[in-house]
Specification:
single chain; alpha+beta; conserved putative lor/sdh protein from methanococcus maripaludis s2 fold; Elongation Factor Tu (Ef-tu), domain 3; OB fold (Dihydrolipoamide Acetyltransferase, E2P); six-stranded antiparallel barrel; 7 helices; 32% helix; MdtA-like_b-barrel; Cobalt-zinc-cadmium efflux system membrane fusion protein; MdtA-like_BSH
Amino acid sequence: MNHHKYIAIALFIGVAFASCSGDAGTEASSDTAKAKTEKPDGLELTPEQMQTVGIVVGPVTQKNLDSVIKANGQLAVPPQNKADVSILSGGIIDHISVIEGQQVKRGQLLATIKNQDLIRIQQDYLAAKNNFTYVQAEYSRQKQLQEAGAGTGKSFQLSEATYNAEHSRLTAYESQLSQLGISPGKIASGRIVSQFPVLSPIGGTVGQITANTGAFVQPGTSIMEVVDNSKIHCDLTVFEKDLMHVKVGQKVSFQLTNQENELITGTINGVNKSFENESKGVTVHAVINNKQQKNLIPGMYVTALISTGSRLMPAVPVDAVVRSEGKQFIFAVVPSDEKSGTVKFKKAEVATGVTELGFVQIKPLQDLPASVKVALKGAFYLQSKAAGGAEDK
């Protein structure tokens, strides 16, 4: 009985040791796996390695670069170069003489409107004109009598008042007919018309036509628009933080956002003096240099770079900045013990700005020492080594 008891105790101790050694083995393998997945904190190279691959380190310098401000906006035309073609007197559209997209000149016939009241206006005009002929003759006769001392003052004053009243009434009819595009001279010769023309108020391109033949239009209704795209300009939104740097006369480069980033240039010619709504943005106007006669249409969206002059700013050579996963980095030298004989690099994320003459403005997104040195040449090699090292581990 005792013999069996010793065997049981021995088996229990063996199982316990096996369990402990199994746990220890698991923990060891876990630590090894963890070590394999951890990325290195930086890259260390010897001076010989740096010389072999052409890595050069140096400080971030202050460069006098042409500063730019980025702004978004869209193309537009001045109010005087865009016209709604409206009807002064209601009627039925008898004929539309143009199509959308057609080039027209100022005063060109766009449509004709039938209006029965137009006949009454012409009849009233002819009656007023005939009556004025008699009133004018009577006034002239009374004036001659007055000058000869044969007439009475009362008769002359009455004829003068009647003359002035009838002359004003006749002038009002003539003005009304002229506004409708009808020549009073033709009406006086007996040519009564039942329709009036609609003429283009400006030269340009016919835009959307919002009415059709046979439709009845109310007075003041717009039936189409005419736009002069030769005077197109750009309205940009500049925010308060950049406003003090924007001035009339500065050069602007535009990229047409939805037109394969077509590039055009221009000049700032006006800065508004009030904020737009609650956006804290101010509208800045720029004239466009369109010598290539590109097809620019109001409403096109643009991204603009406004040149605001040279300013000192921290910059590094363009090759010192590498891109990875949508971000931008430089390789900064990590201070280390000089006795180690190696140079240690660490990636530091940056935002970039102006690029000019092979240098690019940088703004570190994390704190770096003022005297930090970075890889001015060979950053691409460091990036490749860092990526390869991460995969190997």
